[in-house]
Amino acid sequence: MRNRSSETRLLVCVAMMLGSCLLHGQRNTPPSVEVRVDASATDGILPRAWSYFGYDEPNFTESENGRKLLKELAALSPVPVYIRTHNLLTSGDGKGSLKWGSTNAYSEDANGKPVYDWKIVDRIFDDYRDAGVRPLVEIGFMPEAMTTGPPPYRHSFPQGSVFTGWSYPPKDYEKWGELVFRFAQHLRQRYGDAAVKTWLWEVWNEPDIGYWHGTPEEYFKLYDYSAAAVLRAVPFARVGGPESTGPANDKAAAFLRAFLEHCSHGTNSATGKTGAPLAFISFHPKGSPKWLGDHVQMGLSNQLAAVDRGFKIVADFPEWRKTPIIMGEWDPEGCAACSAKGNPQNGYRNGPLYATYTALAYKSTMELAREDGVNFAGAVTWAFQFDNQPYFEGLRELATNGLDKPVLNSFRMLGLLSESRYAVNSDAAIPARQIEASGVRSLPDIDALATGKDREVEVLLLNYHDDDLPGSDANVRLSVDRLPEDARRVLVEVFRVDSSHSNSFNAWQRLGSPQQPTPEQYRSLEAAGQLQLESSPFWMTVDPDGLHLPLSLPANALALVRISW
């Protein structure tokens, strides 16, 4: 940090006494923090809601780095990982680019007769099968031969609008329904009932904005025809929607409410009956980071406000209150393919702030679900990897050119947590409602998630602040109380995600930020991208009143403490 005058130092001291956390590029940290875990008090089941990922470009699945990342995602934990992608029915040559993909599954001959071609679809779904992940099958977008939209059909991101001819209703809903039926039937025949029973299906993406150039009623019609077609081909399928945008704004909230009303009491356009099948409910809460001239300030409060309002809308419908909610996109902001070069507010994506934000957003979303009385089952992180892009371009991705970013290690930490949750008390924790109302703008949120199983306890500690600024390490005293009688001598492992651990970006910068790393450099960066221990595991003796472990937790960082005996 820059040298400061004595006057500035005085101002910093005054600001710290007043509890201000932002002044001249520095933020405050409590002098010490007590985090207590009660290993005898279960606090319910920890939902494995984080194990969902998605991306616009299905063809990026097929590259060497795409297949590599899929396998890493499948290996995160014992629970299933689901993958959602756009453009599974979009017309084109099967070559991906930013915010674009295609399979050419449907075309028509000179007489208007349908022609179905599943070769590209099969390659993508074969990769899912081979990696051990499960599809959350997104039914979209509109094939060129079927769209009512004007040309151009394909967009040219980042120039112009991305909402081109693929985003319009079909010329013929019966033809659309038959396409969806053939699509689902083919997948069932190719992959078998045992596999397909585990899949999820949903219709379109964000039909309340430019992704759908039709009315809400036309989307409900599309949903009815699509759901009926899937269930005709796969009677045991679980179909959900509407994958609308975050309901923090009134228009999106009204759309979600109208869709739930349609599924309850509306006339089904495909069957003529009342209502529509709805196995899960989906919407897309997003945050809103800002560039303040010298640093990024995250907008977690905006994301939680959208989460909370969506939960409350669902809770207003007794018939849907217990229906699983799988948020189809759940992210710090809205454009994965917009780099930090042109959008400096996206600079958080390469470093550990993204990892810490994700862990806290997950914890806070669980808290809101519990308070709102709904069934939070999944949150799709809309991030994967991009082919043929520079290293650490600042795109929202889990890996860059095959190198895992710090955020992927937050999911590895979550994957190490067990199912039984334990009660945690931190004297520096900020409740989710307070973060929803005003963000984390004063003192940082220093808190934990704790879980356990037979002969093991795991504690995921986080030190988060909305502002990506330097700050002092937090001196944390972790106490794990009421361990079983046989836990008198325990093995302790401490995993880290911070500026110097589990951080390929930091390692890349230390090498001079090479865009063409040597093979030796690449191998070292691959290793730096893995989840790392702070030191070798060590043994500790448990005191009569519990286990007490002092830890130093840097600003915007994670630590996972695993205790076994």
Automatic annotation (TrEMBL):
Read off the Pfam families from this record.
Answer: Glyco_hydro_39
Q: Write the record's keywords in alphabetical order, separated by commas.
A: Glycosidase, Hydrolase, Signal
InterPro entries according to UniProt: GH (IPR017853), GH39_cat (IPR049166), Glyco_hydro_39 (IPR000514), Glycosyl_Hydrolase_39 (IPR051923)
The signal peptide annotation in the UniProt record is 1-25
The annotated active site, in chain numbering, is: E206 (proton donor)
Record domain Glycosyl hydrolases family 39 N-terminal catalytic: where: 35-532
* GO BP terms in the entry: carbohydrate metabolic process
* Entry annotated with the keyword rRNA-binding: no
Q: Does the keyword Repeat apply?
A: no
What PROSITE patterns does the record point to?
A: PROKAR_LIPOPROTEIN
State the superkingdom.
Bacteria
Can you provide one Gene Ontology molecular function annotated for this UniProt record?
hydrolase activity, hydrolyzing O-glycosyl compounds
Instruction: Write down the PANTHER family for this protein, in alphabetical order.
Output: ALPHA-L-IDURONIDASE
Family named by the database record: Belongs to the glycosyl hydrolase 39 family.
Q: Write the protein's name.
A: Beta-xylosidase
| Organism in which the protein naturally occurs | Acidisarcina polymorpha
